[in-house]
Structures are given as structure tokens and as C-alpha cells.
Amino acid sequence: MSGRAQLMWDDAVTGYDFGDTHPMDPVRLALTMGLVRAFGLDTAVDLRSAKPVGDSTLRLVHRQDYVAAVRAASADPRAADQNYGLGTVDDPAFTGMHEVSALIAGLSVGAAEAVWRGETEHAVNFTGGLHHAMPGSAAGFCVYNDPALAIARLLELGAERVAYVDVDVHHGDGVQAAFWEDPRVLTISLHEHPRTLFPQTGWPEETGAGAGEGSAVNVALPAGTGDEGWLRAFHAVVPELLADFRPQVLVTQHGADTHFEDPLAHLAVSLDAQRAVMESCHGLAHDHADGRWMALGGGGYAVVDVVPRSWTHLVGIAAHAPVDPESVVPPSWRDLVYARTRQLGPGRMTDGRTPSWKAWEDGYDPADRLDQAVLASRKAAFPLRGLLT
Description:
The protein is α/β, with parallel strands linked by helices. The chain has helices spanning 27-38, 55-58, 64-75, 97-116, 146-157, 173-178, 227-245, 271-288, 307-318, 331-341, 369-381; strands at residues 6-8, 46-48, 122-125, 162-166, 185-192, 216-221, 249-253, 293-296. It has an 8-stranded parallel β-sheet with strand order 2-1-3-8-7-4-5-6, sandwiched between helices. Helix 1 runs antiparallel to helix 10 (331-341). The longest helix has 20 residues, at 97-116. The two termini are 38 Å apart.
């Protein structure tokens, strides 16, 4: 197995562009790669591209009629069929939509294949993590569900246990739906409570069905949750589940929209806490998945101040070359930010926080809303897995 992580990248991913007024500005991808290069991390990884996925791979998750609808809208955006979630406010159709969406999915599938085949222990595709797309429709800025496609490919290659941990502020609904009845896939999502945020799913009671009952775990966090509560919830749920499940591969989604500056959600998490969870996921992959770790991006709409720093930390951690949070952001990157956005970029790789949390084992407060959320998740899912609440 290679000692170097793989970073999946292709300049063409910046063509995933819903238009000038859409919050998912592809500049966030270009700026992230620019910051990765500014810190020299591109030399600490094996930089790889991959082929766009074809129809046979897309059909592992998506219906053929939906793929055909995406192709039609991609060729002529005026032909977008809103019955498939295309041509909507969230998912406007654009020329080349199928091709670039298939490329992003291909990068995630390629990462999964590399990890499974032992070409690398860790692979990162921060352009992926498009977790809302459903088998028959686009949703939530997502056309093809690259995390689900990567997991489905792992199963096709022979994996018997894959764990998916999603810490995006939004519920990982599309991935959960894809494996709702499949006990081979454990999906864990920590997200803002569905009462206050799209997609209004991810309640603790959503635990899977049929043979997959107990294979979906949802932690619905109160709006306003900050570093201490977010980290407490993660550590109260994720490590115990992974220790029990013993995944052969750990897939994690690191949407940066939990941040307190994100304009589309209501959590109050810092860059430093996001980095702490990335470090924890890295450690959990080594503890429970023989080091096989595939890490994805996701949401994140503070496209200058937050997303590039967050995902550059992710790349550094996966490369075993972590960026010191106290590092000064290279001036060359700040020049790039100004040239591309006419904004001033952040000066350091930290928000100046020191993440800490109280362990669940030390007791809980039944009157605390965060602890109520954690307990609801544990009570709903843990007994189905033979674990104590």
C-alpha cells in the first residue's frame, strides 16, 4: 500500500456552475486547490484525476430515466424537466451539467477504488460530497450522488462493511436513502435539526428498514450548537458505532457549512472544531478500518473565509502533513483571492479557538437540548445494534 495519500482533482470540476447568483460558487473549489498548492500539499500527495462515471456506474444508484433527463438538460438547459428536480431554483440546468457531474462522481469512485485496492490508505475528493441527490432526482445543489456511488462501487468490488459519517450541516439524506435497507452500509449523519433546516429529514427515529434496520443513525442538533456541543455529540455517537461495526472502509463527508459564518445554516462551529473532527475521523479510520479512509467535501457557502481553509486542513491531515492552525496564510493565495473575488482572504489557518468537549461517559444533563438530541439518537439506534444507550 502506498504511503502517500491521493488527492483527486481535475480543473474541469469548476464547471459545476449553477450561475452567478447561486450560493454554490465554484470559486470555492479553485480557491481550495490554490491554498493546497500554496502550502505545498500538492507535493505531499499523489495528485490524480479520473474518468467520468458511465451509465453502468450511475445505475448503481440512479435510475436510467433520471440519467437520461440529466443528459437532455445538459445538452439543452431549456429542456430541463422539473419533475426530476432539474431547472429549479436549487438546481438550475446548465450546459455540460451531466459531464461535470459525472466527472465529480468519477473522482469519488476513483478514490474509493484506490483505497479498496490498496493503492493508498487515504484518498480525498473535496469536490465531492454531493449527498442530497436521489435515485430519480436532483436536490439541494446535487445532481449525482457521488458518495453513494463510491460506496456502491465498494460493495460491487466486494466490501461487506462500509461506514459513512456525514458532518455537513445538512442531513445526508440521499446517501441514507440509497442504503436504507442495506446492512452492509452504516450511515451516520450529524446535522442541524430538520425543524430548522433543509431537507427536513434526519430525525433520530430514521434508523433504516428491513435487513438494514439499525444501519442509519441521525443526530439532529439544535440550531446554535457550537464547538463544544458539536464535538460532544460526535464523540458520544461515532466512535462507539464504528468500533462495533468494524468497517472495512470509512467514508466521511466534511461539508464546511457548520461554520458560524456560513450564510445558509444556523450552527456556530469554528474552523478549529472542524479540523478536530477531521483529525478524529483520520484516527478512527486507523483504529477501526485498517486505515482505509476516503474523505469528501460537501456544502460550504462562506466560499472565501471558510471553505478553502477547512478543506486544506483535510488534505493536510490525510497526507500526514497537517497544517499548523497558527500558520499564516501565504500572501500568494491572498493575492489569488483578491484577483478572483475582490475580497480580502483570511490571514491565518485558525479561528483562534481551542476545541474541547465533555465526554458523554462523564454524564449528561437531561435539561440540556444538546444532550437531549444525543440521547434521542442513542435511544433510537443503539439498541437496534445491540449497544447500550
